[in-house]
């Protein structure tokens, strides 16, 4: 599957099929809504759900960073599903992943991970990067900036007669301007 791109104020934004965004000129790799620990959290509340999604998410992050070689990986919130879902094992897996990455990692704090810490990472506030306003929840960006965020888990619904598919998608609203990333985590819906 190939990627599609958009030129925004001189920056090339590449929409990756792995539900990630590549900002070519800054060499930034952006993802949102990973929701690590979600399976454990739901299982603790009696919901039967498989636990292998977390490893798939971490593996996909490793593969994307290896393929694109970013200067920085930025997680736009909800890296974890709930602070109580962060186990020692999860912290060790994330720390091991970060050691293998050849780039800086920034975690913009989301509503699910307020005031949380995961291994060496702390949640950071929304921030500006050369004309891009990076946040978890949609925000009105400063003048001249594009708000890139997560939180909404956008999907597109494809229908044909009685068949229907819900597929994660990117959502661009030029009038705001805002670009919403799809949820990266494999256990997140739309």
SSE blueprint:
Blueprint: E1 4-8, E2 11-16, E3 20-23, E4 28-31, H1 38-44, H2 53-68, E5 72-76, H3 88-100, E6 104-108, E7 117-118, E8 121-124, E9 127-129, E10 132-134, E11 146-149, E12 155-160, E13 163-168, E14 171-173, E15 178-180
Parallel strand pairs: 4-5, 5-6, 6-8, 10-11, 11-15
Antiparallel strand pairs: 1-2, 2-3, 3-4, 7-8, 9-10, 12-13, 14-15
Report the average pLDDT across residues. Answer: 87
**SSE succession:** EEEEHHEHEEEEEEEEEE
- Structural class of the secondary elements? alpha/beta
Biggest sheet, spatial arrangement of strands: 1-2-3-4-5-6-8-7
Report the end-to-end length measured between terminal Cα atoms. 21 Å
Question: β content, as a range?
Answer: 25-35%
Shape: globular
């Amino acid at each position: 599957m190939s990627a599609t791109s958009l030129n925004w104020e001189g920056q090339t934004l590449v929409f990756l099929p792995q539900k990630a965004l590549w900002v070519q000129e800054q060499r930034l790799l952006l993802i949102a809504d990973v929701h690590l620990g979600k399976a454990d959290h739901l299982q603790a509340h009696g919901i039967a759900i498989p636990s292998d999604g977390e490893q798939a998410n971490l593996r996909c992050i490793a593969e994307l960073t290896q393929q694109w070689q970013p200067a920085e990986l930025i997680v736009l919130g909800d890296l974890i599903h709930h602070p109580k879902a962060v186990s020692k094992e999860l912290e060790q897996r994330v720390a091991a992943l970060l050691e293998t990455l050849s780039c800086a990692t920034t975690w913009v704090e989301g509503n699910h991970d307020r005031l949380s810490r995961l291994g060496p990472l702390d949640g950071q506030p929304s921030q500006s990067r050369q004309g891009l306003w990076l946040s978890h929840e949609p925000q009105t960006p400063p003048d001249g900036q594009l708000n890139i965020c997560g939180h909404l888990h956008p999907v597109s619904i494809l229908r044909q007669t009685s068949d229907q598919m819900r597929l994660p998608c990117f959502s661009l609203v030029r009038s705001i301007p805002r670009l919403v990333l799809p949820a990266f985590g494999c256990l997140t819906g739309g």
